[in-house]
Amino acid sequence: MSRPPVQTDAPVMTETRTAVIGTLIVTLGPLSLALYTPALPMLVEAFQTTPAALKLTLSVYFFGFAFSQLACGPLSDAYGRRPVALGFFVTYVLGSVVAALSGSIEWLLVGRALQGIGAAAGIAISRAIVRDQFTGQRSARILNLIGLMLAIVPAVAPTLGGVILGTVGWHAIFVVMTLYGLAVLTVFAMGTAETNRTRDRSAARPGPVIRNYRTLLTDRRFMRAGLVLGTTLGGLYTMAALLPFVMIERVGLSPTVFGFAMLLQTGSYTLGATLAGRLLRRVDAMRLIPYGLACVAVGGLGFALAPLTGEPTVASVMGPTAVWAFGIALVMPGATSDALAGFPRMAGAASALIGFMQIGGGLAGTAVAALFADPYTATTAIMPGFAALSLLSYALLRVPASRRGHPAKPARPEDLEVAVDPVALVGAGGEEIEEALHQRAKRPRAGLKPSPLTRDGQSIPKSK
């Protein structure tokens, strides 16, 4: 929901300093999710509880993250980046300490909820402090470095978590999170200047915020894109809660090998994002969505048919997961830009709500998964359901041809950044997609219609 920065003075921090701080805080969210997942099966025994109860630790994390994302932007616009970020990071450290010292599943749930609330500020604030100070190539250089970290951390964190788990136990994972949170808090408190020089207290007033969200939630086109993203990426977030149990307990992988197996998901998404980035130079982003949804459908079908092949294997589980992740990379550019392009006067609210819907998909999926006694059964039931819902949303919420109009203004890159993979679970490739979308919006190719930032392959009426 952040307003575009007004740059009237020189930057208050150097490029290098901004880049270091930005990369440090942006990894808070993906590290807290991916480092933790290999420990889920071990925690069932440690707390003498059920897999369903442990899946709720991810549900509450997503819950805290989702609602904090809606609040972080307006609060930092109103009161400044520093005080808001410090408040969120203190909450994260407190949650990490609670989780590390928890002696019961109830306290672990409290700790994870606080971690989700605190981690939500990392991605939003890291990009805000860049946009407050820099534009053009200087901004792009810093954001590319941040994007690189978002590519690396989800890929290596599960392996690192598996190594920590196999050597010193699950408590150490939360100790690492606590130490990292303290490092983020210290660096931000001592090394970060306030970058928001246009603070506006009215940005935090609930009335305009609620009205914007009501407008978006009643818009058929926005909801079509939001539900497609919420069911596809939300499905992948749900898998974060299920895969550790399936791969470690049913397939028989060690936590360390499980971490390496997760590279299949990240690698597949990276391949899809690279392909999408190249195709977007010549092809409408909206034209990629059906192909991406076809991949998601194939992945969902693979999950549905997997029980017929017998006991789960790496191929029968990670194969559909990789195909699903590849499809998401093709869906995200068109769906994200389609959702944002029609609302130039509330693009910040639209980007935050799109992110909320994606995380909300993960929240809903993990909550439903907690109802299943067997994680493998949950996987083979929930993922096909997500695939079916994504196809239905895309088909049934298509806007009638009678509502065509004039082209909409392109989405700003800072809004695309907030809306693309808010938890940074897959991470890699998102910056290339955003850059390709933005460049095509600025310099459309001759004879290429419709614009990549139109809705349903149609144009949109201008705001009156």
TrEMBL record:
Xref: InterPro entries: Efflux_drug-R_Bcr/CmlA (IPR004812), MFS (IPR011701), MFS_dom (IPR020846), MFS_trans_sf (IPR036259)
Keyword Thylakoid: no
TM spans (from-to): 20-40, 52-72, 84-103, 109-130, 142-164, 170-191, 222-245, 257-276, 288-308, 314-335, 347-372, 378-397
Keywords, ordered alphabetically: Cell inner membrane, Cell membrane, Membrane, Transmembrane, Transmembrane helix, Transport
Pfam families reported for this sequence: MFS_1 (PF07690)
Start and end residues of each stretch annotated as Disordered: 437-464
Family stated for the protein in its record: Belongs to the major facilitator superfamily. Bcr/CmlA family.
PANTHER family, A to Z: MAJOR FACILITATOR SUPERFAMILY, POLYAMINE TRANSPORTER 2-RELATED
Name by which UniProt lists this protein: Bcr/CflA family efflux transporter
